[in-house]
Amino acid sequence: MLESLEADRAFLAQKLQKDAEILDLKAQIYALEQSISALVAAKKPVQARLDAYKYPVLTLPNEIVSEIFLHFLPAYPEPPPLVGLLSPLCLSYVCRSWRGIAQATPALWRAIDLTQTEMGGSRMELCVPLLDYWLSSSGGCPISIHATDYEDSAPVISALTPYLSRGPEHLKLTAKSASQLSDMEAPMPLLCTLHLRFSESVAIPHIFPDSPLLRAVVLEDYAVRSISLPWLQLTSLTLRDAFFDDCLSVLQQTTNLLHCTLLVWIQSAPQTEAVLPSLETLVIERGSNSRVEVLSGFNTPALRCLELPEAFVRPRRALDADCLQAVNDFIARCGCNFQELRVTHASSSVLGSRAFPSVAVITFDRE
């Protein structure tokens, strides 16, 4: 009997202690609820002030924001990256307002670079949908396209085909051969500049579509012998990584050129020459196995400026002892219009005016 009474007393004591603890917790909960209510009440006016606040950039007219977006890009026709922090797509991710402005600015999407080495997965699976998005977003703007990848050029060209009648204005393509351009048969009425590079030759040169505004062309590697263009209308031509004989057959047709740049392979002194009556600037770049004999392939009575690598004017072997004389002979053939000689990759400027007595201005570029 006494043992049962003691057990009941112990149980009652524990119950009273737990009830006290519960009351204490309820008091704490009540205090916290009061604190939360006070914080919520204090938050409301702060939130109201924040909701009423306008960030200065969001108060700008859409036209000003659109202009700022355009200055975010490289100077046209150079394209921004297709994806990443420097892509116009990044601007459209900031907020709904900026996305609407970006999508309503066609000029933001008019220059497209499809050469993406950092894109994950299959590049074509990503590039072609993005290409469609960019081209549709560019509205009626003339476009600039860079697609410099041997493997991916064919699907890119196929995706470009529906847009060729409206543009492009500037086109840079690298492909395996000219045969990949078979889909590009529609006229390109706005094309101004063209840059092509092929890694393989074709038996019959591809006739490029009608492009009445085309004036500046860069052809590299097998593109020199694999493409047929309206040569007479060109005013600027760059030929790189090609045999000079192939270049010479092209140059003989470009009689209205004003500027010409060459980086060529030469096997022997040319037996014929290209008569370029309007050419004002001739640039021979360092590389390949270019030699001073290249100059004998030109008849340029209006030439004003000649740019040569130092190897052309500073012989380093007994075999090249007549290099300096060959350059002077070429300058003499140019006549009285010649004004400036630029020597690139120069180690010194020792040659000076004594080496070229008939040249008014001689500059040495050591880069």
UniProtKB/TrEMBL annotation:
Coiled coil feature spans: none
Gene3D superfamilies, A to Z: 1.20.1280.50
The F-box domain, residue ranges: 58-114
A Pfam family that the UniProt record links to this protein: F-box-like
Annotated transmembrane regions: none
InterPro entries for the chain: F-box-like_dom_sf, F-box_dom
Name by which UniProt lists this protein: F-box domain-containing protein
Species of the source: Favolaschia claudopus
Top-level taxonomy: Eukaryota, Fungi, Dikarya, Basidiomycota, Agaricomycotina
